[in-house]
Design brief:
Elements: H1 15-34, H2 37-44, H3 47-58, H4 65-69, H5 71-83, H6 90-117, H7 121-143, H8 158-184, H9 187-208, H10 215-248
Helix pairs in contact: 1-6, 1-7, 2-5, 2-9, 3-6, 3-9, 5-10, 6-8, 7-8, 8-9, 9-10
Length: 250
Amino acid sequence: MDIFAPKSVPVRKIVLLALSFCGFVAFTNLSLQNNSIGTYQLAKTMTTPVIIIIQTIYYKKTFSTKIKLTLVPITLGVILNTYYDVRFNLLGTLFATLGVLVTSLYQVWVGAKQHELQVNSMQLLYYQAPLSSAFLLGIIPFFEPLSGDGGIFGPWSLSALATVLFSGVIAFLVNLSIYWIIGNTSPVTYNMFGHFKFCITLVGGYLLFHEPLSLNQALGILCTLAGILLYTHFKLVEQEEGKNRLAQRP
């Protein structure tokens, strides 16, 4: 069917990418554990300005002033939400900050490695996934009990096993979508797409889990959404202008 064909890639060139994925998984989960759902989701939106900074400084990529200005309401919204979060704590903020930094590096490297190694999303994930799994196996004993009730080698119910397997399938699809979107667009655009899902998560956290949501936090969410919508608008306009310039060339 010619859907997927592995390509030989030096493993040493994937090590940093695999390690950054491990940090992405660990710190984002620790952030979720120590923060409210709203703060966890909004903190993740800070990956966008961090990615822009990384790409500007280290990859010499340029962004228009309009695109950069959309980061102002996004950042302001995150600050508002975090400041007025009733579950604000220093440890949660630390994990959220580390999660943002590592996630930003991971997403930048996903795009960079696909271009550097001339591979597609599936070919890169083919090497990165097992390598990351091996690294994560080494740190599991430090975060999870190994035996007893709830332990890795403890008794597992059928429902728990099914949930873990289902979660693994979903995680694979999420990772594949990350690679595909970044490979075909950019890390910044991927983040903007991803930010829309946080609205559903915030509403779900408020309705299903009764997460507290103050008026100031709601304003922070709206502020962040405004920045995301502005970015999307400006990006579409720039893409259309680029197509028009190409069409006008002789």
